[in-house]
Design a protein that fits this description.
The complex is a heterodimer of chains A (407) and B (395). In chain A, helix 5 packs antiparallel against helix 7, helix 7 packs antiparallel against helix 10 and helix 9 runs antiparallel to helix 10. Chain A contains 11 helices and 10 strands. Chain B starts with 5 loop residues before the first helix and ends with a helix. The chains are: A alpha+beta (407), B alpha+beta (395). Bound molecules: flavin-adenine dinucleotide.
Chain lengths: 407, 395
Amino acid sequence: MNDRPRSEESTPAFPGIASRAAATDAEGRIPAANWDELIDSGYLRLFHPAEAGGSGADADAQFDAMEALARACSGTYWSATVSALLCGSLIATYGSLRDHEQLLRPLLSGERTACFGIVEPTAGSDASTYRTTVRPSGRPGGGYVIRGEKSRITNAPTADLSVTLARRDKGPGDNGPDWCLAFVNLRQPGVQRYETPHMGLRAMPWGGLVLSDAYVPEADVVPVPFQALSDGMTWGWLLVSIAAIATAEAALTASVRHAQARVSFGRALAHMEGVQAQLADSRAQLDAARVLARRALRERASGSPARQLIGMLKVYATELAVEITQRAVQIHGAFGVTQGHEVERHYRDAQMNVIGAFASNRLREQLAEGLGLGPAVYQPFDWLAPTGLRHHPVSLDGGTRAVQAVA
Amino acid sequence: MVLAQPELRTDPEAATGLGAGPLERSRELAGRLAWPTTAERDRDRSWDPALFAELARAEPGPSLAGPLVPASLGGGGSTAAEGLALLEGLAEGSRDPGLALAVAVHAVLATVPLRAHGTPRQRERYLPRMASGEWFGALSLRQTHGGAVAPAVTARPAPAGQGGWLLTGRLDLVAGAPVAHHFLVVAAHQGGGRTTFLVDRATPGLLVTEGGPAAMHTCPWGHLLLDGAHVDDGSVLGTVEGAAAEVEPLLAVLDWVYCSAPWLGVMRALARDALEAARGRELFGRPLTHDQATRFALADLATQVELAEGLLRRTASRLDDGGALPLQDAAAARLFVADAADRVTRAAAGLTGPLAGTGDGLAERAHRDALFLSRTGGGAQVLRPVVAASMLGLG
Ligand SMILES: Cc1cc2nc3c(=O)[nH]c(=O)nc-3n(C[C@H](O)[C@H](O)[C@H](O)COP(=O)(O)OP(=O)(O)OC[C@H]3O[C@@H](n4cnc5c(N)ncnc54)[C@H](O)[C@@H]3O)c2cc1C
């Protein structure tokens, strides 16, 4: 078992994608050559068994490949992995091979891509604000239509298919779940999309879908209890955690290289204890994150939702990557804040992972619940005033001056 | 209120049953034998030989005195990973970092160098008696990070005819000194080379005095004063002037991994206490468990425990692989565990600490002793350069 990343000396995976990473980021588009390389490498097939058109790699091989791709180009990794791993798993888990093989196979062959539309323009963390709804089409052939807006969705501007979370417009006597996943063909009238410019992961297509009664065949609407969905989402948390680990590793590798090359006060930075401390702390923390990530992926791949473990990993690894890329910027001095420099890109990319697929603090709430502290309780914040801690005290001389509330 | 140890007390079957692993067994044993007197021993700075003897001979199951001694020499024949688990369980059950440190020093740091570098004669003389708990082995924690601290003991050849070596110097921070039968001592030669010696307590010229640091009170501490103490050639462990390549790096790895091990158990105990404490309290007329700062702190605390556990266990299991020992990985693991212990102790103490005035005092002990953990094994000033050197190809 290798808990360290592939060594610098071993042939880097995805060499073409890696060599184009800076240009890909600058242009904000994944070039066709990247998709060709992904398809040739077999990456998109790793996560699924042979009967679904995959190659059924084991968890460690999946981990190695994910980290290698994310190191090569994090934007490309996000786009490819959301489609093949996350959307592919959602289709395989909540759909059925019989009905949905024709949706899954093209994602694994790379002919098509998918997005996972959950979040809407309202508060992303709060599912109760989502309004997108599926209702019977009323057309002679049956089926459904979907209406609503999904926003900040990876691959939305380019995807062929959206695995879409929606409410079900339930008719009388329908006791099924309130929610469903709708597998929506995005190449049809009734679908508009937009791009949202973003800070990091610039190559990753990101934006919104406006669904105006887009058609969905009956078999492609799968009623799902909301709770059951959250198990599928842990694939998303894992995917993001590995992106964070890879970005941190890339930033750390760049830092080591720079520390060896840059001379200051007559010696390479590498000889400075202050720089060494930053590198060593990063190494230890990243090792710990990677050990946890491998364990989490093994558990998830063996069928356990591993919610708590993956939740811990997501919070720790994504925040750690922000810290490590920040240290990398510091070690690089002005190079680190120069547009086009590798480390500047990693710094921007790292921030995205903290928010994407459940922002950290929202996830901490869930972890607390998993520890047995009960679900989060939200009340209007009105408990301070009765304690007297919203009032300025009267002067030291006392007196009868009217008590004033703090502005 | 004395904090209950629910897992330790209510499930004796899981603890003693055949299915229980080394961690569960030693946790149960320590909870039963050691924990009832932990607070008292800590207050009195006392070592209880009867308790150690009981831990050493506990049957069936964990051999706490000699898990890493081969079975053919009377030891537990455990793997490195199992040895780690035993120490985790010992600390978790006893809630006593000092006792666990004393056991780690005897059963691992003083033992494994003999197993690895001892002559057949040395192994046969020492290891069975160490494994049974009859002989306690000790060493100075200043000598577990190579020669980073200038050696305080010198060796010079004994006068012709007498043979052997004369050792002179003073060592403090000797864990186990007051109760030890023998000591591992690294001494410097005039030319700068260093040799490891096995020094029996009865050696003429060796004076053992009591006294130790302001932490880890339940570990028996002392100083060694060597005043031309004469040791014969048979007491050299490894090769003469070979310590830097043999015993020193081994001791460093052992300290970084095995003196950290108890903290996995201590952190789990602290996390459990913190969770309990949060459940029982109210603030602003609301249960504290509704407070997000509290919830987030507990989530982060649980995460640190999980991370530290994974990293340290991975490192220990690599010691079982048989190849060269991963020095920089062990250093990184210690760096991480010491930091985690500090974070977890502070977060847990925020909920269970001095204001609570209840419990068995683990939060207070852990505060004091986590600081000890972070300053020993060389502390960050040694660990970071060791890790960085391997990254930078320097050193
Ligand atoms: C790179 C990236 C890719 C994304 N891809 C997708 C995608 O493919 N599909 C998709 O559906 N969405 C996607 N998103 C959207 C993402 O899921 C949301 O941004 C995220 O869930 C947070 O929602 P929000 O941005 O509306 O923030 P809000 O929900 O408004 O939260 C703002 C802040 O408040 C905190 N907060 C919110 N609720 C709580 C709480 N209960 N307790 C404590 N703190 C809380 C959050 O932690 C956060 O810091 C992506 C986002 C990013 C950045």
